Amino acid sequence: MSAQGTNEDGSRRHTRFHGRVEGANRACSQEGCENVGEFRAPPEQRRGAPDGPPQWRWFCLDHIRAFNQQYNYFKDMSAEEIDAAQRPYGGWDRETRAFSANAAGGTMPPRWADFGDPLDAIGARFKARMAEAAERHDGKPLSGEDRSALRTLGLALDADRKALRTRYTELVRRFHPDHNGGDRAHEKALQDVLAAYAHLRKAPAFV
């Protein structure tokens, strides 16, 4: 796997492995390995680490497979800690701390390590908000209504007028009763598509 996206023989690598981060500019964390680290693994120390986001390790495909085979999440945990981690809401039952240093009692703001997020819900929400705030590469403005209409049509932020028209035609054919034997079960979806298209075709980004 010497070249990004290809095997040593020049053939294209399989890109559908779960968790692969394509384009990662990181070396594999396995000592002596020169391949690209495209798969994230937990840090060596989960507890007692300095405050801040976890310092993930990154492995190539071969070494992440080896890591997964020997990984034990409950290693070094006591019986009580294992029981707590296995509860359905484990990690979400910690006492909430004040965010302000001037709050009653003079408590300090929470540290990163104070949060338990086993399902990565905080990170997922942050990524979603970043996607919401993203801008078009051509610099054309997008209002909240524009973004909502794009989601309705399943279009990317950088879609152009041609892509808009193509997607609109595709969805109308999919939802229109005439193409479904008279079935009106998709009438609401069709109305949403018509409204989204009517809005976007007049939006600054598509004029």
TrEMBL record:
Stored SMART domains: DnaJ (SM00271)
Residue ranges annotated for the J domain, each copy included: 148-205
Region of interest called Disordered, as start-end residue ranges on this chain: 1-51
Domain of life where this protein originates: Bacteria
Transmembrane segments: none
Stated name of the protein: J domain-containing protein
Species per Swiss-Prot/TrEMBL record: Sphingobium nicotianae
